[in-house]
Each structure stands twice: as C-alpha cells, then as structure tokens.
Amino acid sequence: FSTRIIPSTSFLSNDRDPFSRIRASRGHRFPEPWGMAAPPLEVLRCHGYNGLKRIAGAGFLPEGEVSWRERSAGGWKSNLIVAGAYLILTLLMIWPLPILFNRAIPGDGFDGWQNYWNLWWVSEALLEEHTSPFYTRYLYYPRGVSLLFHTLNVPNGLLAMPVQVLFGPIVAYNFIVLISSVLSGYGTFLLTLYLTKSRRAAFLAGVVYAFSPFRSAHLLGHMQVFSTEWLPFFILALFRAGKGGSLLLPALFLCLSSLCDWYQALYLALFTLIYIGWLAWKKELSPGVALRLG
C-alpha cells in the first residue's frame, strides 16, 4: 500500500483550510477536529493500512471510518487463522502420533530417548534440585559431567516444563514436536510476508519450510536439529534491525537458536555477515547500522 496519504501541495498551501477547495468541489461534509478539515473519504480508502494509520494519528479520521487499531485487530485474527492452519497440517503430517500423544514418541529407538532425558533433566534441575541444568551428577556419578556442549535443548526444556509438570514427559516431548512445526511455519510466513507482501506466497513458504524432508527426517529423534522455529524469527528481526529497528529481538532469537543447537549459532553468524555484505554492496549500510549489526 502507498504511504502517500494526500498530495503534498495540499499541505504546502497557504490556505488556512487546505481541504476547503476539495470539500467545496465535491460537496462533502466532515467533522473538523482541532479546527482542521478532514480529507475526503476517497483519499482514506485508497491508501490502505499505512495511510489510514497516519491519518488517524494526525486526528483526521472521519466518523464512520475504521481506526488503525481495529485494522490491527483484524490482522491478528488473520494471523491466528494462519497459525491454526499450520497446527492442523502438523497434526496430519505426524499422524498417528496425535492418537498416541500420551503413550509414544516419534523416533527410531535411539536419539529420541536422549532428548526425552534432556527435557526431563531441565525440569528436574530447575524445579526439584534448584541447580543449573548445564551440569549433572546423574551421568558419570559421583563426579558428574558438564552439559555445556551437550545438545541439551534448554529452550525446549523451558517450553515443555509446564506441560511436563501437568501431563508427564511423553506428552511434553510430543508437545515440542508439535509446537516446533507450527512456529517454524508461522515464522516463515511472517518473514515471507515481510519480503513479498503476498499472504499466499507466505503461507506456501511456511508449509515448505515446516514440512521439509530435512525436518521430517530428523523427527526420528534429533530434537536439536528439527528445532528450526527460531531461525526465521531471527532473520525477520535482523532485517528490521537493518532498517533501524531494535536489536533486542535479533539477540533474543539468536540465543534461543543457539541454545537449541550450537550449529545454528554458526549458521546465523554466517547469514548475518552475508546480510551486512549485501547492505554494503547496495550502499545501504550506514556506519550506525554497521555498528548495530556488528
């Protein structure tokens, strides 16, 4: 949508009421908040959400028009439907796991049980033993061992903790399988929507990413590998940071991705370097942006 709300000559006019000639020629009657006339309805309707938001913020919203807050609420409802669609697709793709949700976990009988133990240990360490989950005496007892470079999946353990307390470790494991696919699809949807402005293309991209053969193959037990949900969120936050947005979200998603699998920290570091190089090549990399992203 265009962000040009009205012709700039209207604002540069020396008239006290820049819209007086428009109103007079078209016969419109509008409320005049703060002593200024509102733009015609045609102007409001043809410039989409961004134009409507700017007009509403300036106090030019005529009576009967939808406010930008109401438009935002409609967007959230639409995104909720998209997330629900990914949830339904996930349930179909992992069938028959939904009917065995509290009795079995997906896997080949090997690495899945290691990640099953990981989820249990994070909850046990934090809730029962009140200690760091990055060290345990349950392995190599009595000396114990560091788990700092182990595929511990701490973010998954934290997400699964309430479910594990209420329903047990099997349901907690399957909950992570479910939520990882849904968030992978939804994060890719948001990223693609940001880049293409096409909801259909964004939804299709989310399907391709969430249910790719790579992720499906690692559902056999490699939880740290199929936990790809934070990658698209990081890239989206990085793109926004490159345009002047906050660095807090890229840092947060980088931490979540890295704590799921240290390999992801390497992948995202390489991607960030490539992105900075792209900005420099396009001559869009200011010193301030370079310092922020570096």
Description:
- It is a single chain.
- With 294 residues, the chain is mostly helical.
- The protein has helices spanning 8-12, 20-26, 41-45, 48-58, 68-93, 111-128, 154-167, 169-196, 199-210, 213-218, 223-226, 230-242, 248-260, 262-281, 287-293, and strands at residues 135-136, 145-146.
- A hairpin with an 8-residue loop joins strand 1 and strand 2.
Overall shape: it is globular
| Helix-residue proportion | 55-70%
> Any low-confidence stretches, pLDDT <50, length ≥5?
1-74
> Could you describe the largest sheet, including whether it forms a barrel?
2 strands, antiparallel
Classification by helices and strands:
mainly alpha
Q: Measured on Cα atoms, how large is the radius of gyration?
A: 26 Å
Number of helices: 15
How many β-strands, per DSSP?
A: 2
Element-by-element helix/strand order: HHHHHHEEHHHHHHHHH
Share of β-strand residues: under 5%
Seen as an oligomer or otherwise, the chain set is single chain
- For the termini, the CA-CA separation is 32 Å
Q: What's the average pLDDT?
A: 76
Q: Kindly report the spatial arrangement of strands forming the biggest sheet.
A: 1-2
